Amino acid sequence: MSAQPVKASTAKAPPKGRAGGTLRDFHEEDKLGAAYDTQLLRRLWPFLRPHGKYLAISTGLILFVAALNLVRPLVMGSLVANAEKGEPSGLLKYGVILSAVVVGTQALSFVQMYAMQIAGARAMADLRAHLFDFMQRLALRYYDRTPVGRLVTRATNDVDAVNELFASGVLNAIGDLVALIGIVIMMVVLDARMSLIAFAALPVVGAIVWFVRSRARQAYRDIRVKTARLNAFLNEQVAGMSVVQAYAREDEMASEFDSINVEYRDANKQSIFYEAVLDAAIEMVGIVCIASVLWWAGFKRIDNAAIAFPLVVTFTQYIKQFFEPVSLLAQRYTILQSAMSGAERIFKLLDEGELEKVPGPRSKALSTGGPNEAVALEDVTFSYKAGKPVLRDVSFHVNAGEKIALVGATGAGKTTVTSLLLRLYEHESGSVRVLGKDVDSYDRRELRELFSVVPQDVFLFAGTVASNVAMSADEPDLLRVEQALAKVGALDLFLRRPGGLEARVDERGANFSAGERQLIAFARALYKDAPVLILDEATASIDSDTEARLQAALEAVMAGRTALVIAHRLSTIRAVDRIVVFHRGRVVETGSHEELLAKDGVYARLYRLQFAVEAQEKQEQALADA
């Protein structure tokens, strides 16, 4: 079913579906409190400091260009005076000087802007890298409740908004202020009374800026919020497009997107309105001032107190230049508001305190295990949400080289155990140890180097087969890649593909089957060759033929290392040393396959139920084949 395009202009209000309720609550961001530009600029300074030489060059040139601009009206006045006198040599002289001033100003402005944008681009690259590094250190709990699109917006749109400070020359405001002061002095020196006409407009301009200031900041804040929501929704829809199409929800999703898009459009309309008000009002005031000066000059002629025509030309040029920096300051002010609203959200993320724990002084006093201990949990309790424990007083030990299976119904807490071992989440009470040391005493990178993990939901990165198998290394060793694939019985499978080990892997491995992705994940774990292996539902996505192909390889993979195997398909774990049975967050049984069947407890019930289902499925398949 193909969705018909929805015209954004026809949307009146968000639909009463997900976009009108839960979706909005999930994607909308908290309102920010008061933030001051000076505080935000101070926080941006550490990223600018390493590139200070470019800023220094740019600032010096800004001042020099401002001085050259002050000279230009004087040269034009002299040019007009010589024209009145009919002196060709004077015309030529001042024409050449004016040309030199204009060309010199433009050339220096180019160098100045180039230096400023180099400083800005490098500083923003550093800020973006800092943001990415910070996001890597955030605890997984934060990602559980934060839309991906919002985080992407921080590192892209919001950083780009801050970069507009440099790209649009906002820092040229220094030159604008210097030029304004110089112009005021020159105007007063030339004619104090005519200067008052221009200065009388300043309160009007100030009132306009005051009116626009807070409204423009809020408008740009709204744009940042709507941008994040738009990106989050798009990310969700693209990732789930197969589900949207399978359930024929294209029209409904288009309607939800339309409501979000209209809000984003309206937020931009508000900012455009305030920017247009500021530009038009200042332009109008400037024109009225020039007209007033011309009227005053004409009035003085009628009054027989003539003002020299060259002076009028020079003065009107200064008035134009007077309102030029005023107008530019106003424009740059609106850009500053956009940049500061982006900076607010960037630093709001950087102020997030939910980071992964690092080893502290108390680590030395943490519990330790015996020399032969590989993994241990003692009285561990853990909750994803307060008051809803997923694990309750869980205890079990695994010796080095032992193969342990964790089984139980969905939601019993099996995968949570592996998350605690890797310190993807922090346990609330009890002790979690790896190779005899408490996990809290490890550096997180050092701890995770001890594990090879094969997850149920395999994530492949865009690249090649070799780069995905060797993702634990900076550069793939093709010989090791071949050996890892051979051990899982998949080398011939991938060598047959065009490109072999250098075959392209699309985003998320979309050009590979589920079974092929799982085989790459097995090879990835073997390539890393860590002492502890975690297999989390490792054969859940593999068909029966591929599973049979893997069984012999799995035994070779687990040989000589500690293995934790999480499996719903109990037929895959008969060869393990022990089985730990979870039920509602507790360990209820431990023993071998035969021992647990003899107990006729939770494991025996799971075993009988699963094999009854599998027998029925085989019978139905046989009847279908017949």
Describe the 3D structure.
Residues 375-609 form the ABC transporter domain. By secondary structure, the chain is an alpha/beta fold. It has three domains: 30-350, ABC transporter transmembrane region fold (Up-down Bundle), CATH 1.20.1560.10; 362-450 and 533-546 and 564-626, Rossmann fold (3-Layer(aba) Sandwich), CATH 3.40.50; 457-529, Rossmann fold (3-Layer(aba) Sandwich), CATH 3.40.50. 62% of the residues lie in helices and 11% in strands. It is built from 21 helices and twelve strands. It has helices spanning 22-27, 37-48, 52-85, 88-137, 140-145, 148-167, 173-190, 192-199, 202-239, 241-246, 250-302, 309-350, 414-421, 444-448, 465-469, 478-487, 491-495, 514-528, 544-558, 593-599, 602-625, and strands at 373-385, 388-399, 403-408, 429-434, 437-438, 451-454, 463-464, 504-505, 532-536, 562-566, 578-583, 586-591. It has a six-stranded mixed β-sheet with strand order 6-9-10-3-11-12, sandwiched between helices. Helix 9 runs parallel beside helix 12. Mean pLDDT is 77; it is low at 1-16, 31-35 and 361-365.
